[in-house]
Structure formats: C-alpha cells, structure tokens
What we know:
The structure is a homodimer. By secondary structure, chain A is mainly alpha-helical. Chain A has one domain (about 5-135): Winged helix-like DNA-binding domain superfamily/Winged helix DNA-binding domain (Arc Repressor Mutant, subunit A, Orthogonal Bundle), CATH 1.10.10. In chain A, about 50% of the residues lie in helices and about 5% in strands. The first copy, chain A, is built from seven helices and two strands; from the N terminus they run αααββαααα. Chain A has helices at about 5-20, 30-35, 40-50, 75-85, 90, 110-125, 130-135, and strands spanning about 55-60, 65. A two-stranded antiparallel sheet of chain A has the order 1-2. In chain A, helix 1 (about 5-20) crosses helix 2 and helix 1 (about 5-20) runs antiparallel to helix 4 (about 75-85). The first copy, chain A, is elongated and about 55 Å long. The relative contact order of chain A is 0.16. The interface between A and B is large, with 42 and 42 residues. The structure holds a DNA duplex.
Amino acid sequence: MFSKSCEYGLRAVIFIAEQSTLQTKVGLKTIASAINSPEAFTAKILQILTRNNIVTSIKGPYGGFMIEEYRLKEITLSEIVQILDGDKIYTGCGLGLKQCDDKSPCPLHFKFIEIRNNLKKMLEENTLHDILFTDTEKNVFWLKT
Amino acid sequence: MFSKSCEYGLRAVIFIAEQSTLQTKVGLKTIASAINSPEAFTAKILQILTRNNIVTSIKGPYGGFMIEEYRLKEITLSEIVQILDGDKIYTGCGLGLKQCDDKSPCPLHFKFIEIRNNLKKMLEENTLHDILFTDTEKNVFWLKT
DNA sequence: CTAATAAAGGATAAAAAGATCCTTTTATAT
DNA sequence: ATATAAAAGGATCTTTTTATCCTTTATTAG
C-alpha cells in the first residue's frame, strides 16, 4: 500500500508524537531502534519531514526531534503520506491507465474510487492526536516489531 | 496500489476476456498494443497467468491467448492480484509491522483493516464476467491509454 | 575557545522492480 | 518434411527504491 519510506515515516512520526506528549525530545538512534527501522534511512526520511514542517529538529548535543503540541491536532496522516508517497494513491487508476476518470472510466473505475475514497477519508480525518488517543495499547506496540 | 506487473496483468486479462466473449483468440502483439504495455514484459506476465490457469495459451501459427467461456464467471480479480502481487495487500500492516493483528494492533490497525476488507471484498466479489458486463463503455476505453 | 554531540546533506552501494533480447519449443500450413 | 508463426523460457540490462557511509554544519557544556 505505502512505500517503505512512508511506513518508516509514519512510524517515526507517531513515535515522536507520542514522546512529545511526554515533553520528551528524541534522537535518531532512539527513534530507529524504537520503530525498528534502518538508522541512516530513517535519518533521510526525517530530513524530508523536517523540511516539510511535520517534525521540528534540534541540532547539537541534547538535540533530537519533536512535534509541537499544537501541531498534533493539525497534522493528518494524509499530509505525511502525501509528502512521502505523493498523491498517486489518491489519484492513480487501479489499472495504471493515465486517462481514467468519471468521464472515461476503466472497467474498474467506479468500484475502485469507492475504495480509494474510503482510504483518503480515513487518512484525512485522522490527526496525530486522534491516532495517539485511540491507541488501544499505547506505548506498547513498538516493542513488538 | 498494485505493482506494474499486476496492472498490466489485469489489463491483459480483461482484454483477453473481452475478446474471448467474441470467440477471438488474441496474440501477444495485439494484447500489448491494445493495453499499451511493453511487449516482452507482458509476455512474462502472461506466462505466469498461463501457468496459473487464468488464461489458456496456444502455441504456433494462429496461436494466442484466450479464456474459456465458463471460466469468466469463476475467475475473480482477487485471484489475479494474488498470483501477481501475493497477498501482502490483504494481510500486510499499514505501517509495515510484522507483528500486527487484532490482538496486538498497531495504532492504525483497526482503521486500516476496514479499508483493506473493503478492497478485498471488492476484488473477491468481482469476476471477469462481472467486470465485462458492467463496463460502461465496453471495448472503448482501451484506445485511450 | 574547544571538544563533543547530533542533525543535514552529498555520494555511493545493494536490492528489487521493471523491461528487453535472444534462443528454444510447439504447432500449423503448404 | 520444411518453413513459418507464436508462445516459453533463460539471460541480461535499466531504473527505482531501499539502504549505508562519510563529511559538513550547528549547538551545547565546560
């Protein structure tokens, strides 16, 4: 569904968000080991997320990554996915046709947009805050990757 | 959503199915140009689909690919997707975690399985026959890739 | 000011997906 | 039987994605 970059990105952001609610800033090593992702690759993804103002980074000793409290209710999963995977997941045809829309639909078009709209809706409706506070086993799942 | 192989495969199968209802067997060149896919790559995909008894191939002059009439109501989109992309689309965690299920769910788990189940249901419920006969502009869309 | 720490960023490498080429096998018409 | 047409299959190449390494920049404590 999502690229590896996007999966790592989402995991990283959710983890950072979680720690941020505890007023804790986290470094790359901590993040990568918590979410079980390759460190250097995760660094690249965090750079992108930093440039796109999803996370805030602080350089130097005692530095790390964090997300401002007020941003938790603003940032949606959709934004993160769009930054890391673009919008092909929202706009792409199921059969990969360039020209496929309501006017000239592929044979799967109408069945497909239904699914895609559900996904889109879900990603747009869920902010980091929502994800953190409907988590059934908060802070626990990370240990089981 | 799907890999390129799977997109080409679905397009090829739908095209072959369409032609098969007209009692017409089609060759690789015809298929690749109709569905706008790379010929040699499409050949590989058709090999896989032949081995998996989705399409029937006939070698030699006047050969080509076809789908038996009675198979049209049996073959679902789901089968084709599973053959070409495996079942990660059905079973994989949205965040890419190995261990993620109802018992130890990732933070997106319950929101995700809803989407995935919709997709699964759609692919399982639609046979080639269904796709062919709910196509709004039958035989036309291929020309517009 | 210096040493140390941590993120940023450039360059490169490895793996996977996508695509092509060429030879072999099978079947058909003449 | 032979020439030909078409799919099967092996080998190889290209591109994209995933991943690593190393140098530079920024920040902090002492």
